[in-house]
Amino acid sequence: MTRNLSFPILLLFLATFLSLVSGWDINSQNDRHSCQAHSRDPLEGCDRKRTVYVDVVSSDSKYKTVQRLEVALTGLADTYVILIASGNYTEQVNVTRRGPTYLIGQTAHPSSQSQNTVNIIWAAIAVPGLDNAFTSTLTVAPNLNASLTGSGPTGFPVPAGTPFGCVDFRTYNLNFVNDFAPYSDGPSLALSISYANGGFYYTGFYSYQDTVYVGKLGNAYIKNSEVAGQTDFFYGFGTAWVESTSISLRSCGGGITAWKGTNTSFPNAYGIYIVASNVHAANSSLNTTGKCALGRPWNAQMRSIFAYTYLDKSILNTGYIDWNPARYSNYTLQAEYRDYGPGYNVTGRQAAKFDVQLTPEEWAQYSSPQKVFQYPDGRFGNTGWIDWSG
């Protein structure tokens, strides 16, 4: 067990060391923005030793799709930066490598997600007999078994001994789209991450149902981004921290969040934490006033917290709801802390049966990424892969 856990930590250490040696640092906004800028030489401003260029149209690029490059890098432990040229890429991207992997999009506006110029697009829906995992536009997991959703209260039984995947996966200024249908018609994932650490910055995820899936032992940090959906569009088993992000309601169905808690031999904080973000209707023509629930329990151990977040008038007066048939229990935590806006109805929350208003002391145990992200053995503080400048 010690050997398995030490290897991911070693990879993170080597990535940091190589950044110092090369002088180019993914965590430096100046370095990253210089690499992302459009130029005659696309690798100008990049770390040339570790950066590979993908361009769907240019004859100068060896790689026309992101997935073809990912396959070429599979099995290599080195750190790689993948610079993706502006354009639309119709493909599924499946990242299985363990080494630090950074996907960055070309852009003239690296501090604005709404002006991204790289779109990775797929169209798929889960049909009977097909696991949700097969629909995702972007998948980050060491193998298929790790990524499967499965069914029932505990989901797919991932085999013991399944290795941890990417220790430090990131995206900057990319949009991932699953546009199977312009409405909720079944699971259609834009992101699936399991048995891996992933940071997503200035990144868009667009679908209608089950947009973002954070599977078992998955850690996802989403910041300065946009996530759009209609039904249960944040769901999973792992841990997601969503900060300073636009939560775009394309309609109302189910809830914004739906999580399955897990019994472990150690205390865990698996759940979805939406902090200092903005929940709003996707456009003014939608008839969503008072209809959208913050979430519903995918199993009885659901943990979902909205904190310091603006809620527009789309949100149901009572906040959260129960599943049908009922799953809410004493083990369920559907909570808020200092939310505000027209969607935060004080009277409605006081009457709510499925929505808890946390005290400062109760919120304190979940109040930072360091307090919720865990290593596979249960230790807290698994945050060495987060870009705090992002």
Summarize the helices and strands and which ones pair or pack.
Layout: H1 2-22, H2 29-36, E1 51-54, H3 66-73, E2 80-84, E3 87-90, E4 93-95, E5 101-105, E6 118-122, E7 138-140, H4 144-147, E8 169-172, E9 175-178, E10 191-193, E11 196-201, E12 204-206, E13 212-214, E14 218-223, E15 226-231, E16 234-236, E17 239-243, E18 246-253, E19 257-259, E20 271-275, E21 278-281, E22 303-307, E23 310-311, E24 333-337, H5 346-351, E25 356-357, H6 360-364, H7 369-372
Parallel strand pairs: 1-2, 2-5, 3-6, 4-7, 5-8, 6-9, 7-10, 8-11, 9-12, 10-13, 11-14, 12-15, 13-16, 14-17, 15-18, 16-19, 17-20, 18-21, 20-22, 21-23, 22-24, 24-25
